[in-house]
Write a structure and sequence with these properties.
The chain has 15 helices and two strands. By secondary structure, the chain is mainly α. A two-stranded parallel sheet has the order 1-2.
């Protein structure tokens, strides 16, 4: 379904609508036309909902000549959804829902522009709602596995890597359980295909990252990040305002102020706890081994990549057992 360029209850600027309608006539956006669109949208430094909507409708009717259209489209819509939410680094629930509806409005998800847009939002955002990165993974799975048999190219693998390690993804710099399940699903659905060698390396890296480095700092949790952004935006008390607050609180507030621990002690304690958490996560547990074993048997066959992961886990487990035995006996581990 093709949407008319003026189908919006919040119409874009007349000049932009006229330019978009003219560009859509031949279905191709030239380098010069992409530059003209940039000039029309970015003079005030902001991209409105009407302008972003107009670009999405135009994208459903055209293809780019070179990369100028894709770059302009991705930059403009990303700027809009991130600059009109909680803050310029967090994707709000409202904007996430709007973007999901918008990219599926014509029933087709364009890889060159719309997939690039979704991935760029994940990369630029400090956090995104759970439903959004789940939506991106689902769309990516459909794109990469249809029609079978699917062969994963180097570009496909790079796209998967960007989604996995995007700052605004499910696990940020770590691979979450949902993301690990996604990697297993892609591997199973594309088993037997002729894949670029980098797919095996990424599969191994992703699963081992999830098992051995999944203690993402609490500082990176979406709720914590949003709370910190709220604190950062809150007005600060001046020195004299703080003194008045303490004086108004009476002896109790005076005592609490004087006896509260130094900030450096709290910071050191926090990072010591995170270091202990990370060290614990590096140990391979029986429950993690059981999860991998169950996951490899889920579809009644073991792929070559799954076999490689199982072999690597056996090696890591043997090393850990040897290190534990050496530590117990006081002998140096080999």
């Amino acid at each position: 379904m093709t949407l008319p360029l003026n189908a919006t209850s919040d119409p874009a600027d007349t000049a932009l609508k006229f330019l978009a309608a003219r560009i859509a006539v031949d279905g191709v956006v030239t380098e010069e036309e992409a530059l003209a669109l940039r000039r029309e949208i970015f003079p005030d430094g902001k991209v409105s909902r009407a302008e972003a909507s107009a670009l999405l409708r135009l994208n459903a009717r055209v293809r780019g000549e070179g990369t100028a259209w894709r770059d302009a489209f991705v930059e403009a819509v990303t700027d809009h959804v991130l600059a009109n939410g909680y803050s310029e680094t967090h994707l709000s629930d409202e904007n996430a829902e709007w973007l999901q509806r918008a990219v599926l409005a014509d029933g087709v998800l364009d890889r060159d522009t719309e997939v690039a847009l979704l991935v760029k939002v994940l990369e630029r955002a400090s956090s995104t709602p759970d439903g959004f990165h789940g939506f991106v993974r689902d769309r990516m799975f459909q794109l990469l596995t249809s029609p079978p048999p699917a062969n994963l190219t180097e570009a496909d693998v790079q796209l998967i890597r960007r989604v996995l390690f995007a700052e605004g993804g499910a696990g940020s710099i770590a691979v979450s359980r949902d993301e690990a399940e996604w990697i297993f699903a892609i591997d199973a659905a594309t088993d037997g295909g002729e894949h670029h060698p980098s797919w095996r390396a990424l599969f191994m890296q992703a699963i081992l990252n999830h098992l051995l480095a999944n203690a993402a700092p609490r500082l990176l949790d979406r709720a914590t990040l949003l709370h910190r952004a709220t604190i950062a935006d809150a007005p600060r008390e001046t020195f004299f305002e703080r003194l008045r607050t303490i004086a108004a609180g009476g002896p109790t507030v005076w005592f609490e102020t004087l006896t509260q621990p130094a900030p450096t002690k709290a910071i050191n304690a926090y990072y010591a706890a995170r270091a202990a958490q990370a060290a614990e996560a590096e140990r391979l547990t029986l429950s993690e081994i059981a999860w991998v074993a169950a996951r490899t048997r889920a579809d009644a066959r073991i792929t070559a990549n799954e076999r490689a992961v199982l072999d690597e886990l056996k090696r890591i487990e043997a090393e850990q057992q040897a290190a534990a035995a050496a530590a117990a006996s006081g002998a140096p581990a080999r």
